[in-house]
Design brief:
By secondary structure, the chain is of the alpha/beta class. It has a single domain (about 50-145, about 155-290), classed as 3-Layer(aba) Sandwich (Rossmann fold). About 40% of the residues lie in helices and about 15% in strands. It has helices at about 15, 20-25, 60-75, 85-95, 105-120, 155-180, 205-225, 245-255, 260-270; strands at about 55, 75-80, 100, 125-130, 185-190, 230-235, 280-285, 290. Strands 3-2-1-4-5-6-7-8 form an 8-stranded mixed sheet, sandwiched between helices. α5 runs parallel beside α6 (about 155-180). It is globular and about 50 Å long.
């Protein structure tokens, strides 16, 4: 895909929060899940992730696997959640992580898995909400095939909404209480450059990633006073099998620079170590992760965090 939006950097909600909005934020007096809540520590990840507990969805391959490897290398106790049991367990064996089977579109499954994490580890500090799919996955590519909304199977629509949108919203919903009780932490959602530009090859995928971007930006200032930061990473084209087995090769033939998943893992780490919240971290080839910022909208009559 080609980016044709304006690169930007979202300001910290601490620096730019409207006082009217701040009055509407309720900070819990007791963040404990069971027993005494840990003291908030907003510098927890400055020196790495030693002794933290990290959950990565879709960690059996691609960006999720790269993030799991990076966090484990930096000392985190990593839990990989995926429907791909074979892939997930392979990565877990490689890095000494724990595997959980999880359908991210299932709210009951989320609650059960977070309860297991609390019981086994007593805390949760980093959550990478990464699991995601495209509307179609073909065996032969499909990178340049025209998208036809009229003929799209409704089952495909429901499936991608469940993974890409429900997986982020339900994940944040299920994780925030334990993260707050753990002294705070960081949620990171995998969005896409397609979340801030148009991507006609897959309009439904584009819609889901725009939804993730909007949710992260709106939810972040509500979570920040509780010690939980919330960011999204916006990858360009990454060498994964999200579309097809030969997707990366096909993209290269079209002159598209393809990124290694480890470059997106770098964006996840950068987001965790930021002192702001609600940021969108643009991850493009041969560039360090950087914030992407929308232009503010004036005179809309409600608090605007982008001003």
């Amino acid at each position: 895909m080609s980016a044709h939006g304006l690169p930007f950097s979202r300001r910290s909600t601490r620096d730019s929060r409207d006082p009217l909005l701040e009055k509407s934020i309720i900070v819990p007096r007791n963040l404990a899940v069971s027993g005494q809540a840990q003291e908030l520590d907003m510098t927890r990840f400055d020196q790495g992730f030693q002794d933290t507990v990290a959950l990565v969805t879709g960690g059996g391959s691609g960006i999720g696997a790269a993030t799991a490897r990076r966090l484990a290398h930096e000392g985190a106790r990593v839990i990989i959640a995926d429907l791909d049991e074979a892939g997930g367990k392979t990565v877990c064996e490689e890095i000494g992580a724990e595997f959980m089977s999880l359908d991210v579109s299932d709210p009951d499954a989320w609650e059960a898995r977070i309860a297991e994490i609390e019981q086994r580890h007593g805390a949760l500090h980093v959550v990478h909400l990464n699991a995601g799919i495209t509307t179609y996955k073909s065996d032969s590519g499909g990178l340049v095939e025209a998208f036809d909304l009229a003929s799209m199977p409704l089952a495909n629509y429901r499936r991608i909404m469940g993974a890409n949108v429900d997986g982020v919203i339900l994940g944040a919903r299920a994780c925030q209480r334990l993260m707050q009780a753990s002294g705070g932490g960081c949620l990171i959602a995998t969005a896409s450059v397609a979340g801030v530009v148009s991507f006609p090859p897959d309009p439904i995928y584009t819609a889901t990633k725009h939804a993730v971007v909007g949710f992260v930006r709106a939810q972040a200032p509500l979570l920040e006073p509780t010690g939980v930061m919330f960011h999204a990473v916006l990858p360009g084209v990454v060498d994964t099998n999200i579309l097809s087995e030969n997707f990366a090769d096909e993209a290269r033939k079209l002159g598209i620079k393809v990124m290694d998943p480890s470059e997106i893992a770098e964006g996840v780490v950068t987001a965790c170590q930021a002192k702001t919240s609600g940021d969108l971290w643009l991850c493009l080839p041969e560039q360090a992760p950087r914030r992407y910022e929308f232009a503010p909208v004036d005179d809309i009559g409600v608090p605007n965090l982008d001003e």
